[in-house]
Amino acid sequence: MNILLIGSGGREHALAWKLAGSPSCDKLYAAPGNPGIGENAELVDLDPRDHAAIVCFCVDNDIDLVVVGPETPLVDGLADSLHVADVAVFGPTAKAAQLEGSKGFTKELCSAANIPTAAYERYTSKADAIAGLADFKPPFVIKADGLAAGKGVIIAETHDDALAALDDMFGGGFGDAGASVVIEDFMTGEEVSFFALTDGIDVVAFGSAQDHKRVGDGDTGPNTGGMGAYSPAPVLTPALEAEVMAKIIKPTVKILADKDMPYSGVLFAGLMLTESGPKLIEYNARFGDPECQVLMMRYQGDLAQLMQATANAMLSKAPAPVFLDQTALTVVLAAKGYPGTPEKGGTICIGDVGNALVFQAGTTLNDGQLVANGGRVLNVTALGANASEAQSNAYAAIDVIDFPTGFCRSDIGWREVEREKMSK
Ligand code: AMP
Ligand code: GLY
User: Fold this and answer.
1) What is the CA radius of gyration of the chain?
2) Which residues line ligand 2 (CB under 6 A)?
3) Closest CA relative to residue 390, chosen from 327, 331, 299, 332
4) Residue 385, Cβ neighbours under 10 Å: how many?
């Protein structure tokens, strides 16, 4: 089949690598892509916001499947535009993508389907939200309703900080995303990312991972899109995974189907493993970045075939996903300044990283030289028998990469590595 992949980050490079290696993929295009993706796919200069141009390209090039990497085109209805043109697409419609596009939508769904999550209230006026703070205890969890590029959640330690956050959100600091605000209870526990594929009817588990959101070692400093991840996350035991499928994922898929907005694609649940069981923090309508990179390194099947089966509501006929029984770990090399203003243009020489894989995110070519062009730049990904071994393999690969304006955390995987030390 011929496939068009939408996106340009490390997640999409990992998807491109796996799709290009799928026996059922004849030709892979990527729009707009990056130099790394260009090694696995033919890059096409299409703007993901230009739905008409994408549909036109699909018709002209006999595209059998479009795979949408990031959330914004999904929330904007790219899948809907492709459905109208009868082009199969891996990714949900705009209505179903509200699971990521509107925190209030998801919270209301959780209430209606009895899905475990933090207790919440939704407010559309600042005055009501300020009055509502009285119903919550600090730390206050305050969320802009809409898409905010991962920056729409503020954990306010004090009442004054909460007032400042509400001021910012209702004052337009988050654009339209902050016109409606959710305040919810603070949950404690370990966080884990869980993935499931669904065609709206059937659902299959697609692995777990643990991300590292803070920029600094020991989980310190500001939040980022994710500085590294490993998969699987054994803290999500088979029993907990079964509970997540039964109490969170399946009821979500069912209630969306019942509401006539069936969800198709990958469902990414951010979970908190609390003392009273797993609870949903948030849903994403796409793979995690950098979680996708570690899932792809472990996934063993024909990804193109599995995604096509998902897109065509044939998931029940597809072979069950099989993953390598090893740990994959990825370390993000970011440009200095990230998550503030990253330094652009720093030169990168990847060198011989052995069996590791280097997925490219914010890169570009400058006169044939690979240079940094974004915050998160490279995802250095390696396998190992366990997290400790995968960690040393990934950092050994980083040692051979020459990227003077880059930096990384030195402790990716630390929770699992500590558990492995304790169990020796
Ligand atoms: P989200 O964008 O909803 O995943 O939130 C970003 C981060 O904020 C999460 O990864 C958690 O670390 C934290 N967070 C969000 N909601 C809560 C909550 N109710 N309790 C504790 N931490 C939360
Ligand atoms: N790594 C978290 C995310 O993709 O949202």
Assistant:
1) 21
2) 211, 225-226, 284, 288-289, 291
3) 327
4) 11
One-character DSSP codes across 227-292: SEEEE--TTS-HHHHHHHIIIIIHHHHHHHHHTT----EEEEEEEEEETTEEEEEEEESS--TTHH
The set of protein residues with a Cβ atom below 6 angstroms from ligand 1 is 118, 141, 153, 184, 186-187, 191, 213, 270, 281-282
By alpha-carbon position, which residue is closest to atom 2 of ligand 2? 288
- Identify the residue with better confidence: 143 or 304: 304
Q: Ligand 2 centroid vs 368 CA: distance in angstroms?
A: 31
Other beta carbons within 10 angstroms of residue 53's beta carbon come to: 15
pTM of the model: 0.96
Q: Would you mind telling me the total number of residues written for the chain in this entry? A: 424
pLDDT of residue 59: 97
Average pLDDT over the chain reads: 95
Question: Could you tell me if 156 and 140 are in contact, meaning their C-beta atoms sit under 8 angstroms apart?
Answer: yes
Amino acid identity of residue 309, one-letter, is: A
The residues near 110 (Cβ < 8 Å, ≥ 6 apart) are 116, 117, 280
Q: Which of 12, 268, 330, 359 to mutate to test the pocket of ligand 2 (most atoms within 8 A of CB)?
A: 268
How far is residue 14's CA from residue 299's CA, in Å, rounded to a whole number?
Answer: 11
- Please tell me the distance between residue 147's alpha carbon and the centre of ligand 2 in angstroms: 13
pLDDT given for residue 31 in this prediction: 98
Got the DSSP string for 58-100? HHHTT--EEEE-SHHHHHTTHHHHHHHTT--EES--TTTTHHH
Q: Which residue owns the Cα nearest ligand 2 atom 3?
A: 288
Whether the Cβ atoms of residue 189 and residue 196 lie closer than 8 Å to each other: no
